[in-house]
Design brief:
Blueprint lengths: L4 E9 L2 E2 L1 H16 L3 E8 L3 H9 L4 E6 L8 H15 L3 E5 L2 H14 L3 E11 L2 E8 L4 E7 L5 E5 L16 E4 L43
Parallel strand pairs: 1-3, 1-5, 3-4, 4-10, 5-9, 6-9
Antiparallel strand pairs: 1-2, 6-7, 7-8
Helix pairs in contact: 3-4
Amino acid sequence: MMSKEIWVFTECRKQGLTPVALELFGEARKLARSLNGKPCACILGSRIGECFSLLGERGAEKIYFSDDERFSEYSLDDYVQVLHELVTEYKPQVMIFDASSSGSELAARISWRLRLPCITEVKRIDVEKDGLAISRSCYQDRVYQNFMFHPERTLILTVLPEDLDSNENIVPGEMELVEAKPGHAMDRIRARSINFLKGDPKEIGLEEADMIVAGGKGIGKD
């Protein structure tokens, strides 16, 4: 039986939680209120205990997590194996990934493995009496597609965060923790992450920059 939980997937790497994942919790809270559900986090990483309070401050009422050294860096096969087991057992109503390269490939893989519907590049989600009204962008925002979805199975979404409204006063409450242990199938992983190479600062997106310096006409010729 499908639960009424709205999951937001996030990673906890060496630099902590990704800002985008925290931002997506605004959408999870809105959906949970409209569907009489519960906003939840699904988090993988290594030594992630310090991330729980941040997720609670964002409104997470339950956290599904797996804390393992193998999750210290992103690895598609490792992540998919654990997420497969979690989604199969707990059956969230909606699972939200950020529309990054890693989030998009995870969403697609989980969707294919479990034969679940998946909508990518989502810009807006509204709850109507007939179901979920979902709008996604394509062709570099030149065209928008609209879907009406009736949740009967877990719906997988990748969401673009830039238009989400997260300006909301949140009163953290009690938070339930559910730990998932990596199964024996982890021994059959085909590829593992060895090293992470940061991109050229001149080419990476602003959302990934450590520091942004901007100036206008007021600074003069210099």
